Structure formats: C-alpha cells, structure tokens
Amino acid sequence: MTLYYNPYPYFVHPYHYPTSPIANHFAIRPFSQHLAMPTNNPFPPVDTHKLKAPASRIKAMMQQAQLLTDKIDSSQQFAHDLMNAAQLSNKTEVEKLITSTGITVKFETNYTPDSFRIRLIDNDCCGVTLNLNW
Length: 134
Description:
The chain is an alpha+beta fold. The chain is 42% helix and 17% strand. It is built from 4 helices and 3 strands; from the N terminus they run H-H-H-H-E-E-E. The protein has helices spanning 21-28, 49-74, 76-87, 91-100; strands at residues 106-112, 115-122, 126-133. A 3-stranded antiparallel sheet has the order 1-2-3, with helices on one face. Helix 2 crosses helix 3 (76-87) and helix 3 (76-87) runs antiparallel to helix 4 (91-100).
C-alpha cells in the first residue's frame, strides 16, 4: 500500500478528528491563511498583445528552422557534412553549413558526438530550439 503526503491537512470535525487532546487543541484553531490558495491576483492585467507579438515572430523563426530541416532531409551530402563537422567540433564549418541553408536569424549551436542542437534567437524576444540526435 502506497501512502501519499498531503501538505494541506483537513479535519472532518474539530472534536472528532484527530482523537488526541493535543491534536484537538490544534484543530480548534482556525486555519491559517498561508494554507489556502491566494484569492487576489498579484499579476498585472492580461494583455494579449504581449503574447501575440512573440507568437508571430516565432512563426517566422519556424520558417527559418524549416529551411535547415528541409536541407538535412533532402540532401544526403549536406546531412553527412553537417554531422561530420559536428562530430569533429568544427564550429566554423557547422556555422557555414547552417548559414548556407538560407537562415538569416541569429543562432547558437551546441553539439556532441551523438547530437546537435541549434537555437534560433530573435533579439531576446523568443527563440526556437531544434534538437537532432543520431
């Protein structure tokens, strides 16, 4: 049988549960406010424009990511060259190959002998990360 911890205890009736006199002493007290979920919203009012603007910029970045994935998918030679350069940690060659796909946004790359990650960045507004493993 698995027991689960409940950080928010509840009592059925202060005189019936729990049964020890010491526990009844605590049960008679009203619940403290820190156990309940806050009812006031500490955040500013919702402004959907602040969410929609990065969403539209992300769509453009996803089109840029599509350029890279299309090139990897359609060209066996490009996929080989990119994977080989990443395995050899040849940063200059990796960046040259990525730029040759037509990507125009700023990007960062990280790679290991068995994976490749590229993060497309749009002026600290948002980003798209591709993780490719082999």
